[in-house]
Write a structure and sequence with these properties.
By secondary structure, this protein is an alpha/beta fold. The chain is 40% helix and 21% strand. α6 (159-169) crosses α8 (193-209) and α7 crosses α8 (193-209).
Amino acid sequence: MDNPLILIVEDEPEIADILETYFVREGFRTVSAADGSIGLAHYVRLRPDLIVLDIKLPGHDGYDVLAAIRRRDDTPVIMVTALAEDLDKLQALRIGADDYVVKPFNPLEVVARAKAVLRRTTGRRGRQPLRIGPLTIDPDAYIATVGQGAGETTLELTRTEFRLLAYMAASPSRVFERSELVDACLPEGEALDRTVDSHVSNLRRKLTAAGADGLLTGVRGVGYRLADRHG
């Protein structure tokens, strides 16, 4: 497996940065999330090869995130936490964790454990297309289409537009605040709410032209939502 993708779900920025640094040094790609909800959205959208998951997180804690992941597939998960009690370890393993590391830890040990877990698991699984109404998104092929059969239209999207569409499609009907979309989908240097508005405006125009008018809507004063109006 070349350059596996590691998702780090950790609310302490210093720890997340240290883990990212050590994983990158060993040839891994990384993405991070500071809370459980964003971590789950990254997991659905990016399908990482392995997840390093803290237990104590704002919003959904690590146990909730792990349970949600296990309802979908068997992506390898290493729990990283300050909780050293045997019952906590057993709880994580019972839900489906592949390994468990207690803080404070040596980051080299976490990387070594990740390598060991990846060696003994089946590897990365193909991602299923996301479908909302007439829209189909293939995360692996980076293709989004509207309609079916002879009436199918492939959307000509920029990379940022595709990221926004796939990110929202992972949680249909949920309202996404602009700030979250900036953090999750826009590259550095574009971190402005009005930049999100510009990308979304272009995206809505392309969806409408392809026959998916009303699929992507704005929520006044909050953000945006992607949902099948007939669903």
